[in-house]
């Protein structure tokens, strides 16, 4: 299930890279075919990048690109949805697969999108930078986002192992996913190596090699998201990956305010930074005691 | 359930606005207290903005702000999760509530975040613009994102009505949510008016009033997301709302490539832009016929 969920994420990331190059940079199928051919040699070497290369170069008998004739609607009743259900059940923020599933839902709303496209406007945008350098930024953004997606997938496996008392060998799982699987890639070999280095690795992002990848790709990743936002190109998977990265490396998130709100309107209580975990406090925020409802601590 | 899901979203949006002002602009509780007081008069007038104002101004007996002493971890086993499960089941892209639920999951991983914060770096950033103008940008970003969240919530209601054969009065639902509910706001009155104008409105974003709101807020919204991305402040709800907006107004999404990939590796078939819906095609991408597996059309 996690393999297939990751496959949803990988395909969504490839689609977003394609959309940025096509819509944001105005690149042709031929140009993008060459880009994916180049990407397939190196860190992104994988079956899905390889067949994207082939698809972008494929013409029908009329000499026209088949990819341009395909309707942009996809279904999503399978294992991507199952992975998201499981993530919600186990409380693991597998945000990228979630966005990939929802992106398919949105793609299926073709008639609504066609109507909306005639009413809702986007920004004025024309790319003015160095196209070749920006395509390399897109490659690095794709790599960094892919890393976050795999980190989230392995977080889900680890939480399942904990809750269901499974003994999982994460390095072996990475290897299994290389054997004829759709997500097979050089990248999975790096994951195996990370778990060989440290079988107790708690998160792929903390492994030295992957940490180095993120450090190296980070500036490009942010530039791509900024350009996409300014161009009005939807990149839900790239952005959720970056939000996750920024959240995961934040010792302090704004959930203190969230807890204050919940304590204010529902007396849900909160823990404190200067007190042991498991000790709960309530503040009578209004000074009246009348506008909160007590007795709902576990909602 | 949808009310409570939207409540999750509203709270997450407020938390992200707070985080941008606190972390990105370095504003004090006192300054943010004043900002929320101002926001509560006008388009954002609502119970949650009002109590955020109160919380940010609230000091304990030692004269210290309580909000700073609250641990930044929140639970999520309730109706937010239920709303997301239901969105996945009905195939409706309710992305903002999904991100809000996952943001709570991430907040709960306090120990992991503390470890990661010592290893994973962020960007160098110092805000250099006009602070007052940027705070107004944040207000508009919050308003636009909130509108997307409600549009998604009503999309979920509409799909449920369709699949379960319910006869729902959407204007009345908006009114009911004003009666003592946590999400009560002036905004819900505008939703009621939109459905009064057009009881068959298919999406809130297409209503003249809300369409005008989005048009007016759009540039601010993009500026806020860009600054947050450059500052390394996680804003998953702001960004997913913007991605949804950009996707929803796209007649053409990159799902054509997605369908090509699925047809390549699994012979899933695809529809075409130049043929009637319901007619399915398959391409023998490899020219060999051997590297695709047929007979899996409905996967």
Protein architecture, described:
Two copies of one chain form a homodimer. With 299 residues, the first copy, chain A, is mainly alpha-helical. Chain A folds into two domains: 247 residues, N-(1-d-carboxylethyl)-l-norvaline Dehydrogenase, domain 2; 44 residues, Single alpha-helices involved in coiled-coils or other helix-helix interfaces. Helix content of chain A is 61%, strand content 0%. Chain A has twelve helices and no strands. In chain A, helix 1 packs antiparallel against helix 7, helix 4 crosses helix 5 and helix 7 packs across helix 11. The longest helix of chain A is centred in the middle third of the chain and has 34 residues. The C terminus of chain A is likely disordered. At the A-B interface, helix 1, helix 3, helix 4, helix 5 and helix 6 of A face helix 1, helix 3, helix 4, helix 5 and helix 6 of B.
Helix content of chain A: 55-70%
Low-confidence stretches of chain A: 290-299
- The proportion of residues in beta strands of chain A is under 5%
Which protein chains make the most extensive interface, counting residues with beta carbons within 8 Å of the other chain's beta carbons?
Answer: A-B, 117 and 118 residues
Supply Rg of chain A.
22 Å
Q: CATH superfamily name of the largest domain in chain A?
A: N-(1-d-carboxylethyl)-l-norvaline Dehydrogenase, domain 2
Structural class of chain A: mainly alpha
The CATH class designation of the largest domain in chain A is Mainly Alpha
The CATH topology name of the largest domain in chain A reads N-(1-d-carboxylethyl)-l-norvaline Dehydrogenase, domain 2
User: Which whole number gives the mean pLDDT of chain A?
Assistant: 94
The tally of domains of chain A stands at 2
Quaternary organisation of the protein chains: homodimer
Distance N to C terminus of chain A: 30 Å
């Amino acid at each position: 299930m996690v393999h297939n969920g990751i496959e949803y994420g990988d395909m969504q990331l490839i689609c977003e890279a394609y959309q940025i190059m096509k819509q944001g940079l105005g690149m042709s199928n031929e140009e993008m075919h060459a880009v994916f051919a180049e990407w397939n040699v190196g860190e992104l070497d994988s079956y899905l990048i390889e067949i994207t290369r082939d698809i972008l170069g494929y013409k029908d008998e009329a000499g026209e690109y088949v990819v341009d004739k395909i309707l942009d609607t996809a279904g999503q009743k399978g294992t991507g949805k199952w992975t998201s259900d499981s993530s919600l059940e186990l409380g693991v923020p597998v945000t990228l697969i979630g966005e990939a599933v929802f992106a398919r839902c949105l793609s299926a709303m073709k008639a609504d999108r066609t109507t909306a496209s005639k009413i809702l406007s986007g920004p004025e945008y024309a790319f003015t930078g160095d196209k070749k350098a920006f395509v390399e930024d897109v490659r690095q953004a794709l790599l960094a986002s892919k890393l976050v997606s795999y980190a989230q997938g392995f977080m889900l496996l680890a939480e399942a192992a904990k809750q269901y008392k499974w003994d999982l060998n994460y390095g072996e799982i990475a290897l299994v996913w290389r054997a004829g699987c759709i997500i097979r890639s050089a990248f999975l070999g790096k994951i195996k190596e990370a778990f060989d280095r440290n079988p107790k690795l708690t998160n792929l992002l903390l492994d030295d090699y992957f940490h180095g990848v993120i450090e190296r790709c980070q500036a490009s990743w942010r530039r791509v998201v900024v350009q996409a936002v300014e161009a009005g190109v939807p990149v839900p998977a790239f952005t959720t990956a970056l939000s996750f990265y920024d959240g995961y490396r934040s010792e302090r998130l704004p959930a203190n305010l969230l807890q204050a709100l919940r304590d204010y309107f529902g007396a849900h209580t909160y823990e404190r930074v200067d007190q042991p975990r498991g000790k709960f406090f309530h503040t009578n925020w209004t000074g009246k005691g009348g506008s909160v409802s007590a007795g709902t601590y576990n909602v």
